[in-house]
Amino acid sequence: MNNVSVITMFFLSGFNETISHRFVLFFLSLLCYCIICLLNVFLIVIIILDTNLHEPMYILLCVFCMNALYGTAGFFPRFLWDLLSDVHLISYYGCLIQNQVIYSFACGELSILALMAYDRYVAICQPLKYHSIMSKRRVIRFACFSWFTTFCILAVNVFLTSRLKLCSPYISRLFCGNWSIVQLACFPAQTTINAIFANSVIIIYFLHGVFIVWSYMYIIQTCVKSIENRAKFMQTCVPHLVSLFTFLVAILTDVINMRLGSKELPRTLQNFAAIEFLVIPPIMNPLIYGFKLTKIRKRIYSLVIFKRTNFCFIRSDNSFTHS
């Protein structure tokens, strides 16, 4: 037991099944990460530059996209590096940092979705009070507070994990997860506090989900009575519900696989279940909001038409000059 506290590196054994296809996986992962960055940055830039989009709903959407960039930055660069490496090592502190970034992203995603649900609840159920309740400054404060609180809660979780004495450096995943590290503890009795705190975190963010469901129950009840509210619901609430459903399916798949997953499942399937929440929502969300929200869709169309007009003008100008 003298060596239990000297683990400085972890081996990510989840990569063992990727060796034969690592170059194909590297290309697909790089393409996926580029698409995530392009879509989310594009939406952020549109919202920041267009003053017509400086409204609570779009500010929250901007924060949503920033959170996606933050979370995927904690996974993809390291993942791409490991796909090209023969030895899949990560430092002890690097593992804790990756754990902090990825899971604060996941919990932050749910917090932002809860804020979005509250924004839609006020907009549809209390429209006369909307601008006083959901002012720009207050929305920014709400978003910063929810994200900072999430970051601190997960930081406490990581701190509790860092106290554990570990007996093995092998993590059977593609990235560092809190539960994967806790399972390596030499003394199960030491993990009691970790389990209590982790379950408390699950309850806190489960209540976020309950709040979202409660908000939409009132929204739907209000929309049934008004054709105008039904149109508003289809235009602004449906993207939120699709995002919520996509995220919950992805994150629950990872949680179930991590806590209850069977070792008899193929490693490839386990790997996909583990990274699903880091791939599908960051790609789907910008597409859903970009095509469904009218103001953003019109802004994108105007940019495309403007560029096409300029391109045609330049071509005609060049042809005139040559003639």
TrEMBL record:
It is a multi-pass membrane protein. The chain crosses the membrane at residues 23-49, 58-81, 101-118, 139-160, 196-220, 241-260, 272-291. GO terms for cellular component: plasma membrane. Residues 39-289 form the G-protein coupled receptors family 1 profile domain. It is found in: Cell membrane. Its main location: membrane. SUPFAM superfamilies: Family A G protein-coupled receptor-like (SSF81321). Pfam families: 7tm_4. Coiled coil: none annotated. Keywords: Cell membrane, Disulfide bond, G-protein coupled receptor, Glycoprotein, Membrane, Olfaction, Receptor, Sensory transduction, Transducer, Transmembrane, Transmembrane helix. GO terms for molecular function: G protein-coupled receptor activity; odorant binding; olfactory receptor activity. This is Olfactory receptor 10T2-like. It comes from Oreochromis niloticus. The lineage of its organism: Eukaryota, Metazoa, Chordata, Craniata, Vertebrata. The gene is LOC109197476.
